[in-house]
């Protein structure tokens, strides 16, 4: 074997070894990437499962609280005739101006200028006003409970995700 052949054979052997190292390095990097991806998927699945459990608890609490709010509202509205009897309806005139103010506040719109027509009786009984206001407050309390539940849900999810990191 001549010296040039030996050098070429040695060079080929070195290239083959380097090629094998390169391939092995690439495979190792790919395996590392796949393992990291799998860990991220597992962590994500764990967070999702924890979020679902948290969501179920918060929604159950919310539904229970809203049910209590609705029942209390119904109880109050049912008792309006006891606290605002027919005699009070007859003695108290709810004028059109009051109705305009109430309706504007409920719709969150500006009031127009007052007029003579606002002084006239509206034909709405005081007991109707009481029941309407009680119903409006009940709806407001339901909305408040919904907001509290959403805030609780977000806070617990943030806590879940902070613990996972």
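Sequence proposed for the structure above (165 residues):
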């Amino acid at each position: 074997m001549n010296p040039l052949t030996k050098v070429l054979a040695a060079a080929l052997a070195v290239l083959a070894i380097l090629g094998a190292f390169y391939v092995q390095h690439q495979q190792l990097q790919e395996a590392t990437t796949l393992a990291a991806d799998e860990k991220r998927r597992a962590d994500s699945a764990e967070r999702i499962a924890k979020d679902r459990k948290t969501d179920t608890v918060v929604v159950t609490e919310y539904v229970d609280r809203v049910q209590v709010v609705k029942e209390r509202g119904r109880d109050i509205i049912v008792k309006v005739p006891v606290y605002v009897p027919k005699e009070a309806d007859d003695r108290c005139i709810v004028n059109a101006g009051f109705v305009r103010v109430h309706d504007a506040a409920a719709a969150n719109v500006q009031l127009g200028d007052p007029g003579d027509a606002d002084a006239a009786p509206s034909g709405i009984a005081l007991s109707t006003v009481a029941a309407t206001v009680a119903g409006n407050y009940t709806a407001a309390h339901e909305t408040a409970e919904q907001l509290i539940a959403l805030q609780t849900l977000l806070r617990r999810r943030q806590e879940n995700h902070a613990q996972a990191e």
